[in-house]
Write a structure and sequence with these properties.
- With 455 residues, this protein is mainly α.
- Helices cover 84% and strands 0% of the residues.
- Among the domains are: 150 residues, no CATH class; 136 residues, no CATH class.
- It has 21 helices and no strands.
- InterPro entries: DUF445.
- Keywords: Membrane, Transmembrane, Transmembrane helix.
- This is DUF445 domain-containing protein.
Length: 455
Amino acid sequence: MERTNPDETGTHGVEQHARRDVADNRGVPASAVRAMTTFTAADEEKRRGVRRMKLTATGLLLFVALVYVLAKVASNEGAGTWANYVAAAAEAGMVGALADWFAVTALFRHPLGIPIPHTAIIPNKKDQLGVSLGEFVGENFLSEDVVRQRLRAVGIGSRLGAWLAEPEHADRVTAELSAALRGALTVMRDSDVQAVVGEAITRRADAQEIAPGIGKMLDKIVADGGHKRAVDLIVARAQHWLILHDDEIMDAVQGGAPGWTPRFVDRRVGERVYKELLRFVTEMRDMPSHPARAALDRFLTDFAADLQSDTDTRARVERLKGEVLGRGEVQDLIASAWSAVRSMIVSAAEDERSELRLRVRASLLSLGSRMAVEPRLQAKVDSWVEGAAVYVVTTYRKEITSLITDTVASWDAEHTTRKIEAHIGRDLQFIRINGTVVGSLAGLLIYTVSRGLGA
C-alpha cells in the first residue's frame, strides 16, 4: 500500500500519461509534473519515518487494547476497583486512537477501502484545493497594497544604489550591458536596420525644408569671413591649373574664332585671352581686396537672403534636395552608415578600456553613489519599481494564479497523495498517539467523576 510499482502499465499508467498530456496542453512545465510523480531519496527517507510513526501509533493502540483486556479479566476475577479504572482509561484510549486513525486516514484514502462519504479528501479534492490555493495567493499575496507595502519595506532604491556604488558591481553591470548590446546588434539583420535608417533619414529630410537653414548658415559664414579660405584655395588651384594647361586654353579660344579670321590673329587673340585670364586669377589670389572678391561676397550675401526669403529659390533647392536623396548612390551611402556605426559600437562594447565602457561604468558608479544618499532619487526608483510590479501582478494575476491551479491539476492524484503524506504524515501520526493518551486520561477522568457522583 505504501509503494507503487514503477513498471505497472495498466489503467493507472494510461491515466498518468493522460494527465501529463493535459499538463503539457495547459503549458505546465514537465519538471513540475515530474516533481510530484518522482520520489527522491529525501522523500523515501520521509516515507520510512512515516511508517515508523505508524507502527508506533498502532503499537500504542494494541498496547491499550491489551491493557483493556487484562484489566477486564482482572476485574472479573475480583482484583478490585483499580482494574475498573484501568479498563475505563484503556477503553477511552482505544476510542480516541481509533477516531484519530479514521480522521488521519480519511485525509489520504478511504479507511479500510470503504468509500465512506467525505473521505480520501486529498485525492478527491486535489483540483479544488489547487483552485482555492490559487485564489488565496491571488487575494492575499498579489494585491496592490501588499506588493507596494512589501517593496517599500525592502527599500530597493537605497539597496540598489549601495550595490551599484561598489566598483566590482559596476564592472559586472557594465560587462552584462556590453554583452547584451553585442548580442542585440548581432541578431539584428543589417538589411532591416539599413532600410529603417534610410527611410527615417529620407522622411525627416523630406519633412524639413533645408533652404532657410542653409541660408542662415551661409549668411553667418560670409559675415564671419569663413568663406575666404575656401575662396583662397579655389583661386590658388585655378591659377595653378591655368599654368599647367595654357596650350589647351589657347586652343579652345582659337577653336571658337570665326573661320574667316587668319590663324595668326586667332593665335594672338588666344594668347591675349589666356594672359588676361591668368593675370586676373593671379591678382585675385594675391589681393584680398580685389573687386572680384567683393563681388563674390555680395553674391553670397544675396544668395543667402534668397535662400531664406525668395520662394522660387527655396523651391528649386527643395527640388534639388529631392533629386539628390532619390539617387541610388545617396541611399546606399545612408544605408552603409549603419554598418560603420554597428562595427564601431561592437568594437567599443568588446574593449574593456573603450571610452564607451569607461563612460558607462563611471555613470553607473555616479548613479549608485547618488541613489545611496539621495532620498528623492531613492523614492523615484522605488516608485518605478512599485509601479512596474503592481502593473504585472494586477494585469497578469489570473495567469500567475493559473500556474498554481494548472500545476496542481496536472499532478497525478495517487502520487500527489503519497508525496503529501510523506511530508506531513509523520506529524499526523502524533495526532493518533495524542488521541490515545488524551482519550485514556479523559476516560479515566470521566470514570472517576462518575464514580464520585455515584453513577
